[in-house]
Amino acid sequence: MCLVLGIGNPGRADDGVGPLLVEQLVRNPIAGVRVDANYQLVIEDAAAIAQHTVVVIVDADTSGPTPFWFDRIAPQGGMSFSSHSMTPGAIVHAAETLFESRASVYGLGIRGMEFDAFREGVSPQASDNMAVALSFLRERLLKRDFASHVRKRS
Amino acid sequence: MTQTETAGTRRIVIDPLTRVEGHGKVTIHLNEDGQVEHGRLHIVEFRGFERFIQGRPYWETPVIVQRLCGICPVSHHLAAAKAMDMIVGADTLTPTAEKIRRLMHYGQTYQSHTLHFFHLVSPDLLFGFDADPGGRNIVGVAQAYPELAKQGIRMRQYGQEIIKATAGKKIHGTGAIPGGVNRNLPLAERDAFLADIEQQLTWARGALKIAKDYTLANLELAGTFANFSSNYLSLVRSDGAMDLYDGNLRAIDSAGTPIFDQVPPMQYHEVLAEEVRDWSYMKFPFVREVGPEEGWFRVGPLARIATADFIDTPEAEAARREFVDVTGGKPNPLSLAYHWARMIELLHAAEKMAELLQDPDLQGTDLVVKGEKRFEGVGLLEAPRGTLFHHYQVDASDQVTMANLIVSTASNNEAMNRAITSVADKYLAGQEITEALLNHVEVAIRCYDPCLSCATHAMGQMPLELSVHAADGTILDRRVT
Fold this sequence. Notes:
- The complex is a heterodimer of chains A (154) and B (481).
- Chain A has helices at 17-27, 45-50, 88-99, 124-143; strands at residues 2-7, 33-38, 54-61, 68-72, 104-111.
- Chain A is α/β, with parallel strands linked by helices and 154 residues long.
- A 5-stranded mixed beta sheet of chain A has the order 2-1-3-5-4, covered by helices on one side.
- The mean pLDDT of chain A is 90.
- In chain B, the strands form 5 sheets. In chain B, strands 1, 2, 15 and 16 form a 4-stranded mixed beta sheet that branches. In chain B, strands 8-7-6-11 form a 4-stranded mixed beta sheet.
- Chain B starts with 8 loop residues before the first strand and ends with a strand.
- Chain B has helices at 48-53, 61-64, 73-87, 95-127, 138-144, 146-167, 187-217, 219-224, 268-271, 301-307, 314-325, 337-357, 408-411, 413-427, 435-448; strands at residues 9-13, 24-31, 36-43, 176-177, 180-181, 231-236, 248-252, 258-263, 272-276, 283-287, 297-298, 376-383, 386-394, 400-406, 464-470, 475-480.
- In chain B, a hairpin with a 2-residue loop joins strand 4 (176-177) and strand 5 (180-181).
- At the A-B interface, strand 3 and helix 3 of A face helix 1, helix 4, helix 5, helix 6 and helix 15 of B.
């Protein structure tokens, strides 16, 4: 079973591109693929990750390549100064340490342009980037073929 | 990295790379002698959200405001709903509505305090501030104390499930509506929660013990770490009890002497004012009669324990007495004591949930009341990090025309600056940002856990940036964590 987890705030312009992509998958579901969306990664996501074989975390990216990158998320330690942020690497690390997760976790970073605005809806550029990313992800999910299609962030 | 010079001081800055919210930026300013002049926490932009709400129908507000924060959306949901109760003329909610909302709020407090303690603070307490950051994190806790780490997750899940049952869903809940709620708690769900509440109480007691034992064993350290006197503010019940959901405002000074008491929410602006400073997007609230220089105050667990006369649940009250005995009944000024106070509230929230879950009013069907419409409403509650203010005005066509929100992080703004200044003064050696300085600045900020409200969390953002500035404004050093 695969999990697609969209992260971002739909009230903050392009930050909402992750949940927006998830909405598209809800409208046109793929067998064997669960979807979820949240403002941000939280510690319980570690438990959810451990229940799946492949997990794709979809998030906006402030500075990555256009239209998107797609790569494995490596487990990573480190500590935040705030309970309001947790990195994908830390979640993967927690999933493996706490829940013996064996999931392959990928990040799909969609390039956004506008993050300062209080606005629902993403910019035209982010929308275009999301459409390309969605098409790519849909194919990966249908074929269950991920590892050979990595596109590095940098 | 930027450098600036202001009369006679140098500045050390920790800057966000972009203006995207969610970043923390800390600047440390030195004087001409190279001594720490002051430290500042910069949290980027907040006020835009108030304009975002204007023009919306008032009944949408309790849902929309949840976008302010991904960690405590329920606090904003309930504060807005309480303000809208006034708008619809609902002066007294039905017992079912009042208790469903309270259960939601205690669930929120429980999950938020759990997240803060287990996943943000416990690595500091269990491994020490100077431990290798590579292992001083939740993963390190999971490796060294696996049952404790899992416990933290299961406690947070319990609170989240309470929220889901009362708000409709964990994110973007709709449970609280103007004048009441739109659901009760069916018996089957109630029974599922009851089946686990004793376990939750046990775990809450254990978390409290960790925080208490740590503080008592490290009083000497705590006494020299971000220790400063302040005023304190919170809601209290009419009989002086701690009340996280409702009440009137009470402020006390550093000696515990009342500044004002039992001020109704609608009159908050008569006793409090907000100052804007040119270097920060956040407002600085202060007690009017004391003035902006001396009238700043702390909010949150430490303040609530200080202002309340008692707690109305037995185990938390016993814990409160132990807490205040340490300072002879006077307000505790130690930033590190926030963690102990927070765990007293965690146990209180668990006790309150246990009490409410036994109450048959939760299965009642009388959910909403309405009265004569008004054009202004104020909703206050004690969010996990402190007093939360939502103030709205609406017009004849039911659109919001004015919104003023004071979040707890704004109230703790000055306290966090002082905490950073205190830590920098002690741990900054020369002009270089060392691991020790960075660690201790982060530990100081974690005491208050600023809500990076309305935050975005896109990849590529830097969580915290610290910089040191010379008296001439030159940036002497900069680190990004």
